[in-house]
Amino acid sequence: MRADAEPPSAKVLSLLDGEPRFKHTWEQEREDLRDSSPSGYDFSLTNIAISAGWSDQEICNLLIAWRRKHGHDLKLRDDYYARTIANAKQTRFKERSTDKSQRRKGRRELNAGDKDFARITPLAWEALNGANDPPRLFRSGGVASRLEYDDGGFPMLKELDEHRMTNELTEAVHWYIEEKTTRVRSDATPPTRLVNNLLSSREVPLPVLTRIVTAPVFSTAGKLETGHGYHTESRTFCHQLEGFCLRSVRAHPTPSDIERARATIVKRLLGDFPFISNSERAHAVALLLLPFARELFEGPTPLHEIESPMPGSGKGLLADVLALPSTLTPSRLTEAGNEEEWRKRITSTRRAVPSFVIIDNVGCRLESSQLASALTSTVWEDRLLGLSRNIRLPIRCAIAVTANNPSFSMEIMRRCVRIRIDSKTDRPWLRDKFQEPDLRKFAIENRNELVWSALVMIQAWIAEGRPLFKGKKLGSFERWSEVMGGILGVVGVPGFLENLNEFYEEADTDGTTLRQFVAEWWVTLGAGEVTTSQLWKLSARDLFELGEGTEQSQKIRFGKMIALLRDRHIEQFCIKRGGKVQRAVVWYLEWTGDGEPPETCAEKG
């Protein structure tokens, strides 16, 4: 390897003369390059770029540009750049740990015996914020929280309770108690009352965190945020996984970029799934893109329902590979048996600020007012378990559910988009001849390419001026419809929201039963006023799910159900409430259609 005549510092600055971030970091650190060999330059350049907040991809491009400019060898092992970056990060982590220990010697000093909490509380917050660089303390749902890591190295958000807050105050502040007579100072611990005072603050002065992501995402302004760590504009924390290295995404993707991205996702990743129509495939692509594009629009997102006629068709596999590009560890949720359990599970899941949630293998009718509310809300409010205060959590995640020929309540059904696959075989789990025999392995090994493809699709839509979807939109999810439909339209994925009528016809079991009931009511009892007891005799027990109780309890449930149907339009009839006959409420059907109503039994008579 040849020696470089140009001084190291001048050489570095000449390479990136127009990069203010790089220059600023150099001027702050004044770091000398200890090794003038190409690999030594690579390592030192990587350290400086990491300090400047560069992403792994930017650093990779920097090292390639450096080697190309100075005539160094570019034929290296495939993992050379990834290993260089990983080693530099590990070294910097050790250096930061040492620096942190040294900084503690000069940390802020506060008197633990000071009882003026109105004065000392803001000073403690100042000390916490001063030590919160890079950010690891956040505000989520109005609650102070800390970013921690599980045994696998994945980040998770934990409430900053009394013990954690005490730990943070101990790290950020040197606490002492001063003897009144001798003025001798001795070490102390943070006062418990101060800890509780901080945790009870009406406004928590920490950066807001809404999602933890493991891949680059777009901010509200349409900027692609690729760096590791916290991003203020999108309020996300990006935890870049080992080995992740993103190819450059052009501001204006070329037609060949778009074609490559579409082929990677639609043909290679999803090509083996037996979607029953283009619409199902389009919704699958929309679900994959959603975590990357979530900050580009306000408003809720629907439940993506992945279904098939029988087990073994690949629903769980499809849900997994759609989640893998945005996160290798999607949050999983099982169906609950009652509303209280649904509420607890939704709150617990949302407190982890996930990017992707999968409700696995729903086995019974999916019906929950709590889940329905969460799907059409952008904020979830609940009482903290064991405490008397509420928490308000943003809902920014993609939600998918898997099931075999599922049944939904009307409230859930209208909040869904369907992704149906059907292999049309007796034993679908025995199918073979796939282009990718192990699709999960393929998705993990090619995650860099899948992420790049998703980002290219979204960037192409931004470059086109963000055209909105003009077709029929999903009620309550208009902004989601406009943005996701617009993206799919730009990149040439057809069928978005074209299966809604078919889905409603097949999934609306409530509506089918009610139409049958009303038709029988009209034919049998006509337009006159009738009591609930008379309606009960119209095979109500066979038509409606009224529980396993006694006949009297079933009649009570039936009466409540009829009351909820007041003024409900079903086909060309409207259920109306009349007066009372011997204290019993009476009901009648009002014809609202064109022409003459159908004949009743009395008229046929």
Could you say which overall geometry the principal axes of the C-alpha atoms support? Answer: flat
| Corresponding CATH architecture of the largest domain | 3-Layer(aba) Sandwich
Strand content: 15-25%
Number of helices: 23
The pLDDT mean sits at: 83
Kindly report the CATH topology of the largest domain: Rossmann fold
Low-confidence stretches: 1-5, 95-104
**Portion in helices:** 40-55%
Structural class: alpha/beta
Arrangement of strands in the largest sheet: 13-14-17-12-18
Q: What is this entry, summarized?
A:
With 605 residues, this protein is α/β, with parallel strands linked by helices. It folds into 4 domains: 96 residues, no CATH class; 93 residues, no CATH class; 250 residues, Rossmann fold; 97 residues. The protein contains 23 helices and 22 strands.
